């Protein structure tokens, strides 16, 4: 995955929109459209489950230290505190034509389509 998908600044905002989530890293934004899960210290919390929103908000101030695509994920963001967010790509996680979108520096726009 391109290093351009790695935000420079720490996470500064988490925006919960009706059916998607935005992770704002100052001037760079991931819009996550597929269902995601948060993993921290062996505990997995699926989007829509109690604790998911609080877990994401608790990541504010942390940097994304690794951004990658994994076998069963459209996107994985690992944070410096040890937590990771996985944007799922399974059929049951898909909500529309796009899995995620990244608006980055230098007018970079990346849209990952669901297969």
UniProtKB/TrEMBL annotation:
Name this protein carries in UniProt: Uncharacterized protein
Source species of the chain: Niveibacterium microcysteis
